Request: fold
Amino acid sequence: MNEDSGAGPQPGGWRLLPVRGPQDVVGGLVLMAVAAFAFWASRDLAGMRGFSFGPGTAPRLFAGLLLLLGAAIMVGGFLRHGDPLQRYGMRGPFFVTVALVLFAVAIRPLGLVLTGILTFLVAAMGSPETRWGEAIVVGVLLTLGCALLFPYVLGLPFQMLPQVLQ
Amino acid sequence: MTDLFANLALGFHTVFQFVPWTPAFPGGVTIPIPANILLCLVGALVGTLVGVLPGIGTIATVAMLLPITFGLPPVGALIMLAGIYYGAQYGGSTTSILVNIPGEATSVVTTLDGFQMAKQGRAGPALAIAAIGSFAAGCIATVLIALLGAPLTRFALAFGAAEYFSLMVLGLVFAVVLAKGSVLKAIAVIVLGLLLSMVGSDLETGVSRMAFDVPELADGIGFPVVAMGVFGFAEIIRNLDHGAGADRSLVQARITGLMPTRADLVASTPAILRGTLIGSILGILPGGGAVIASFAAYTFEKRIARDPSRFGRGAIEGVAAPESANNAAAQTSFIPLLTLGIPPNAVMALMVGAMTIHGIIPGPQVMQKQPELVWGMIASMWVGNLMLLVINLPLVGIWVRLLRVPYRLMFPSIVIFCAIGIYSINNAAMDVVLAGAFGLVGYWLVKHDFEPAPLLLGMVLGPPMEENLRRAMLISRGNAAVFVTRPLSATLLAAAALLLLLAVLPALRKKRDEVFVESEA
Reply:
């Protein structure tokens, strides 16, 4: 491979490990970390007994494979030019996650109707373009729709109203 | 041949069956209704409705709607899911043509000529040809499934544990090779899926594995949880990055005249047939190449056209061929699922998830023990395609209006709908949080250029792969050579190795990328 091509080592100082594809280097590293975690998590599972698999054999087998693949991807990031790291959005992931956690916490004590509207509004905060008037109207209508669809049409049991009211 | 007709007859009998039904409200009188055909209709309509919504692909649609089928009897649930699947695909091509946003990867090439046609005021004929092509492809593919189903099942029944393991390896390799993007990364994602499927109790000893005494993990990570996280929530988060009001250049011109002219039909008939052929072949492969089928069909049409420069400027063949190809491939990809029990793509993996929830283990035994399930589903595909053709064209106006729903209202709706859906499966609040976590995982994967679809394949194939690997090793008394000494297993593994080798060879890599190059145009 031609060392002088494009954005190789900076002219100022020769770096020991020229990162050419940061996306792949980080991606491979994280996969290796996941594999290492799986090794750790399956450490107390029995392995091979004679020629029969134990419960820990397959997880360790796949974790080992993932470790190798992660390493290969990482090495590829050092050898080949690749994409730079992409920017992560903060607002969207944050509010969607908060909305889901809120749903999980509230669904039992508050029931479907209140939880649904609350979750909708919190999730809506994930976008700067949300207009509150229409969001509240759609949130209420949608929750009522779900409150009819899931328990009555699909026959899945749901608690509708807050526990204190019942 | 008589077998074929008997089987299809059983299928149509199942689809058109009347069952007594009592409405859930008080005072309801029990009446006979054609339940399965109604479910097929509802599935196709709901699938189209959700598939048309911008930013929701086919996999996300099927994953989102999975919970609403859980309360149904198995046959009805699968018929409805199949309906949702091709409805969503049809919805995806509608958005490709009308707003230049492909609903999913299989209709990416449709945007090239479909959107141009729409701009020239010919959205009607483009949509009609897409529907007609899909229907024609569906008819041919249904017959193909019926023809190949029985012999393949007999073939699969001769398989031992070693052969099954090797077949699954081959299937996964196909899935990697036929997909877009880096082969190495796709394999890594599959292995990650396999590893995730190990969480929960061990199938043989019942020992809890990597569950950390979390009760919700004791039975393993739920498949719908991962599917909705990685495809539902991750897609939302990713779309929010681009700003909720993505620039959607909706065709403002009124759609006048749905019907294609005689010249359109003459031009597109051979294209439909060629597309169907390419799609059927690529769909049967264990990799289930609906995506590559549409690209390949488009490239092929362009290459054999007398005037290739018309393509990209509203050539009707450029809509007809890929749309027939992706529908044919989508249908024939049921073949490996129904006969061998191996899901060739992520949507089929979702089907396996649905079957498992109904207590059905997909594989050759299903075809023997529950023929009405398999043949009913096959017959329902034909009926569903016919219904899509009849209902959807008049409904185009509604779909266009749906496309105007702003994303700022749609994404919180999807969040709440998915949350309720996940919660309803097990009444477990923890599942909702887990799905949220998988949403972040999916977001991370996409940001690092990992294709998330193979994750589902790995998750579904993990348990049977482990089971067959263990059984094969036990039978051979720990001799791993069993996989290469048994001729059938050795052939399958050799094919997998060869395929993998071809995929990483520079010359063939280039060819593979060439097929996908249209998407960057």
Observations:
- Chain B has one domain: 2-20+32-520.
- Chain B touches chain A through 67 residues (CB under 8 Å).
- The first helix of chain B runs from residue 2 to 16.
